[in-house]
Amino acid sequence: MQITRRSLFKIMGAAGGLSAIGSRAAAAENTSDDDYGCLADVGRCIGCRKCEMACSKVNALPPAQTSFEDMTVFDRNRRPDEAAFTVVNRYFSSRADERGQPVPAYIKVQCMHCLHPACASACITGALKKQENGAVTYNPSRCIGCRYCMIACPFQIPAYEFSDPLTPRVRKCTFCFENISKQGGLPGCAAICPVEALTFGTRSELLKIAHQRISEAPLEYVQKVYGEHEVGGTSWLYISKVPFEKLGLYPLPEKEIPHLTETIQHSIFAYMWAPITLFGILAGAMRFFNPQQMSGKPSQIQTEKEV
Ligand code: SF4
Ligand code: SF4
Ligand code: SF4
After folding, report:
1. CA-closest residue to ligand 1 atom 5
2. Less Cβ around it within 10 Å: N or C end of the chain?
3. Rounded to whole angstroms, how far apart are CA atoms 157 and 221?
4. Residue 33 sits in which domain range?
5. Rounded mean pLDDT of 13-38?
6. What's the number of domains the chain is made of?
């Protein structure tokens, strides 16, 4: 049965009515203006991939299949996966340089560390948690492998270690939680970026910096900070001289998603419906919020797409 938007809202309404335990705010309770965040300035990124290298090292990830100096990886767009918590993708601008060559734009992709993380909300065991410093962390000892988080994430970030038959984990950017919990600690990617395309700080400071850069070059920058409001706000923020949707950052509703996932999930579990039912309804919910992902069309990324 295909779940239409209309029928989804009917289901949501019924679920809300049935709810005996109400919506929990646990996923969002730790957010504040002093949460850490990171501002990615797409206009500054030169696509050197040093952030990918640093991330791999800091998180002791498996060796990359190709060197981090191999720029042929830009020939196709990539997604973060269990072996790479962040990737940089290249898009070509419709603008040409002085030699008539199209101008590339590079964008780093990783978990956005949402202020109201849908992944944490959908997780029935509390394995994913929004920490007080802004990071959304994962505790493998609590994970039962249901992978609801992967369905719930509006940015299609969590990956799963399907190749590990014994102790598979959900994998995603950790925001270098241990590092940023220390005084003066930086995420590995922000620490290594040679052109300061990545700025680490409190989210409120970063928003000021972002709006200042935009106002100082209003004809260059898109008049928007991506992540300021999307899905209730994210700890990673982007500014760009290329329209965001051309970089795979699609428009999303401002309302946080956990209200939806929690209401449905808690209502269903309160009445002991089978988890498979929840899986189907969450999939319908995510189809509503992110139709590109569920339809199989290219979503966040499109190889060599002209921007
Ligand atoms: S981007 Fe996805 S995985 Fe990361 S915090 Fe948000 S919902 Fe969770
Ligand atoms: S914050 Fe840490 S885990 Fe996340 S992309 Fe940067 S280096 Fe990787
Ligand atoms: S290290 Fe900085 S400039 Fe290099 S690819 Fe990463 S974000 Fe871009």
Report:
1. 113
2. N
3. 26
4. 29-255
5. 53
6. 1
